[in-house]
Design goal:
Layout lengths: L1 E6 L19 E9 L8 E6 L10 H10 L7 E4 L6 E2 L4 E2 L1 E3 L8 E7 L2 E15 L5 E4 L19 E2 L13 E15 L2 E15 L1 E2 L6
Parallel strand pairs: 5-14
Antiparallel strand pairs: 1-2, 2-3, 4-7, 6-11, 8-9, 9-10, 9-12, 12-13
Amino acid sequence: MQCKYTKVTPKPPASHPAWKGKDPKKNDLYLVECTDGGLDNPASFVVVPTGQNPVPQVDPRVLAQRAVDSMTLLGPDIASPRAAGKYSVGVPMWMWVSQSATTYGPNTASASAGGVTVTATAKVSKIVWSLGDGASVTCNGPGTPYTSSEGMAQSPTCGHLYSKTSAGAQSSKFPVSATSTWTITWQGGGQAGQLTEIRQTNVQVAVGEVQVVR
């Protein structure tokens, strides 16, 4: 946001509401005109002690982004599928991620400037898995960890079933990516809003045929 400060001369009378009760003999009055890339905001007045320069107004949205940048948000911490794992055609594969402040959230940070403090909270709202075989799966949570007691059951929250092997893929592995959407809510400086950040993690997954022993 760009703001232009213009000193008001001559000074309006002390009864003018722009003074907000301040003494015109001890203060100067500035007209503040701000624009945020084409959308003009209403002009306003700021009272500044005589001889001092006005403090530039702070855009809370800029502080919100600064707070987000300090969080070091990362892509999903993929727990499954693992690069060293063995996966088979026709056998349900369970996908899930480990949760931490930087890989899943919630993650909270604040940024301050010019007397304004903005606090932002980020959390992953969805993860889109690209499985390398042309399939894409959207999961609205971290996924469910697999346990051996589940046998051949499919994941109740986030899974995939390969119908072909990765033999024809480069390096004989499918390139799998998990792309997280971070939804960030922020408030401060009399405003509130939402931001979105995208992060991705990649892994190579080998999928083979189930070997039947006769």
